[in-house]
Amino acid sequence: MIMTQREKGFYISTYGCQMNVNDSDRMATLLEMADYSPVQTPEEASLIIINSCSIREKPVHKVYSEVGTFRKLKEKNPNLKIGVGGCVGQQEKEKLIKNQPIIDFVFGTDTIDSLPQILMDLENPPEGRSQKIVRAQFEHRQPYHVETLVTNPGISTFVNITKGCDNFCTFCVVPYTRGREKSRPLKHIMSDVQTLIKRGVKEVTLLGQNVNSYESDCGADLADLMRQLAQQTSIERIRFTTSHPKDFDQKLVDVMYASQPKVCEYIHLPFQSGNSNILERMNRGYTREQYLEKIAMIKKAIPNVVLSTDIIVGFPGETESDFQDTLSLVKEVGFETIFAFKYSPRPNTKAAKFEDQVDEGVKSERLNRLFEMHDEIAFELVKRYEGQTLKVLVEKADTLMEGPTIKLTGRSTQNKLVHFLGAREWVGSTVPVTITKASPAVFRGEVPATFAGGLN
Ligand code: 5AD
Ligand code: SF4
């Protein structure tokens, strides 16, 4: 099929974390407000944006290889504009255009809202100025005011509550790519969520690099924010990510418990390493014992809690015995889901300069062992859901199927992805689903006949 380029058609290619996905939604909305429309393939676009995260090494390479694949399109359509945004734009700035001259513009994580202006400036370059634009400065002095901008927010959407990070974990590039930590005023978040509810949103995930250090201008913390959202809005579900163990406190756990079922019983609490010496070298601000104490506090207050975590293997200086501490922590806590990564040295970070870097082969081998061990326990852990009836918020219906019973997908309060059969009208509702098959990645289930009203 031959695709023709659409005037003012944009295509955004996104890699990375939820924060990046959320930024891409914002870019799309800003572009639509500036009369651009989304297209399905890069071939149809007159504007291509690559929005990539740089938290681990690969995404930076990916940007360069992706730009390379767009080269042919640019040869065919010299009017095609190519931009790079997000963390990679913030980190690499002018370097990107120097290395890949087919890139027309670069913008950063704090300059997303100037995207329409950048495009106007590209069309009408000020006299004597170059046609290339790099706008990636941090707006340090500006307060953090970002209303959620999503054209189609769907059933579940992200709401930024903090940006940036001041923790400076020694492995992490985020303080350099997203700048100093700032919080949105509580009043703004409340009215944002009210607007989203009117647009059909049932679930919000409060988003930030370290949501536990949220502090509104009125002094409210994350627990206060969640309590107010639960009590003063009709939002059906509230989630939050990412949490930092050192700031996760009793008040938050108590509010989570008291606000159930609106606040979901799922917590993503990255521990990174199970060894206290490594944690110190990571500048994480807690020991293995303190992390376990937090977990005990959480489990005591919320007995039905479901936990997931992030782990780094092969951090500089990590010995086999340190790695064994990571394996044992995964078992001891019983994480149902883990996100594990090989340590990757990042620009500007302290750990990149540590001399005792771990061999790549050793990192890969440790990562494999970690996943193998986790697979064994995860299948066991999720078996307990078989036969249980979970409350599933239906997010999607199969668009190709017709008839009274079609494939539906939703998430349980425990953040489990569940596939089952039901009616298209259930999208946006919470329905009971009895789990028939539970694997770590996805559950299958069926709606009890009493609820389905004769559907199955
Ligand atoms: N190398 C490997 N993993 C990293 N992460 C952050 N920085 C690095 C790095 N330099 C992981 C951490 C973090 C997750 C989002 O990415 O586990 O929690
Ligand atoms: Fe990075 Fe640490 Fe901040 Fe998380 S808390 S974003 S790992 S510096």
Low-confidence stretches: none
CATH architecture of the largest domain: Alpha-Beta Horseshoe
SS-based structural class?
Answer: alpha/beta
Considering the protein shown, what is the CATH homologous superfamily of the largest domain?
Answer: tm_1862 like domain
User: Strand tally, please?
Assistant: 19
Bound molecule types? 5'-deoxyadenosine, iron/sulfur cluster
* Percent helix range: 25-40%
CATH class of the largest domain: Alpha Beta
Report on the architecture of this protein.
This protein has 456 residues and is of the alpha/beta class. It folds into 3 domains: 127 residues, 3-Layer(aba) Sandwich (Rossmann fold); 228 residues, tm_1862 like domain (pyruvate-formate lyase- activating enzyme), CATH 3.80.30; 61 residues, OB fold (Dihydrolipoamide Acetyltransferase, E2P), CATH 2.40.50. Helices cover 34% and strands 21% of the residues. A 6-stranded parallel beta sheet has the order 2-1-3-4-5-6, with helices on both faces. Strands 15-16-17-19-18 form a 5-stranded mixed beta barrel. Helix 5 links the parallel strand 5 and strand 6. The chain is globular, with a radius of gyration of 23 Å. The structure holds 5'-deoxyadenosine and iron/sulfur cluster.
